[in-house]
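A sample copied in:

***
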Amino acid sequence: MNEAKILTANGTGVVAGIAYADVVWVRPRPALPSSTTSIAEEDRAAELERFITAADAVAARLDDRVTTADGAAADVLAATAGMVRDRGWRKNIRKNINGGMDAEYATADATEKFVTMFQNAGGVMAERTTDLKDIRDRVIAELRGEEEPGLPIISGEAILFADDLSPADTAALDVNHYKALVTELGGPTSHTAIIARQLNLPCIVAAGHSLRDFPAGTPVLVDGSLGTVTNAVSAEEARKLVQESEKRAAKVALWRGPAITSDGHRVQLLANVQDGNAARIAAQTQAEGIGLYRTEMSFLSATEEPSIEEQAKIYGRVFKAFPGSKVVVRTLDAGSDKPIAFANMATEENPALGVRGLRIARDNEALLTRQLDAIAKAASEREGDGPTWVMAPMVATAREARWFASLCRERNLTPGAMIEVPAAALMADKIMPHLDFVSIGTNDLTQYTMAADRLSPQLAYLTDPWQPAVLRLIHQTCLMGQTTDTAVGVCGEAAADPLLACVLTGLGVNSLSAASTAIAGVGAQLAEVTLEQCQEAANAAMNAEGATVARESVRAMFLDN
């Protein structure tokens, strides 16, 4: 009998953990219609009703899933259901059907127009094309009476493989059956990655086309830390590795904080949130406060700027969850992948390098000062005595830092800045004297350092926060923070990786802010190492030739001994 062919795939690990089970692939999408059947004028009303019935059925099923989901998963499902009911999308389909198209072709044609529009917008809007194609496929399948695409029905345990999983399907994953998730496309900041972190489900994204080599039914070992998938492991060895992973998970479940290395070095662990609901969830974890409040996430669909009073009310919901703790508020990080109608330019050739973040206030200072007034109002009404820190995104020069700091201090707010532009890291000695703190946004710092779009699955190997070049910039920033007595935190996705958190601690980072579900894993890992070990790991990672070597060398130091 011939031996099984050895199969391997490598991607970007976004949720640590080891799992072993047979591969299952998501159910295929329906074939899209290439032409339309001409609908007679007298039959068009009935054809439109057929579409409305199918779309309403899809939306209702998504609504049902919302009731059994929590946190980000529930938010994503609700947003997807909202897209099925979107008036603009339905209006275009109605127009197509009234013009004589059948419902399936009308749906595909209208959706493609929106997909093109979203892709041209770029950033988060481009990411929403996955959502659009998902609702298109669900509606077309419903119109044809076919099985809904997406998650297969399974009875045992499995590893889910997909080209790119829709947010609705990711949110519906049952972790009792699906033990890990691997996608061919996607990125570390995609909906899939965000929800996988919430579910604490081992997850690898951007595994590439080699994933197609794994047929359904293949037993595979998935290592979410290393980002590897292979069938070249015996069942006995795999079970041993899974048991070790489960033991580590049990330690994490028992960790209660605060975060202290085994030799007594203190690291503050904070949560990243986008609204009051996320803040309330974070308050139920070991988070000591909020290290990144993404204010722009509340205004992505707003066409007009909310008033100071309206903004203060929104911010107050976040403050309420942590009355006596530090809350770090980021001013509008609008632009690029998060365009806001009332803040950003209509079109830009390269929005990631354009007028975004603090740069918007250069020609519209009142937009910034009104937000700062709203933050100050909400802060003054806090029930507890927790400090309110405010930081500006996309600071690149000392002049910008000085200007922003003066606006904050006028309102009794503690000023800080994001270090995400490489120039800010290189010029930290000039920028920090104007500020009380800085927070490193590793997502954008990596993107700009490596000259690679962080939303591109083809470039995920470059936008890996383990890149030594990025770690060296972080180290330089921390050294200057020590010289100027400026607190240095990290609030990017890198802070959610337990091993990378040790490296960041070794580089000199004072606080780490991550998704609230990742905090216990980071704290438990820090408790097992000394500060000296963290510093040794940091040196090894900075001196590695690339991200993969950096990650593997640190893993060997901490986990393989």
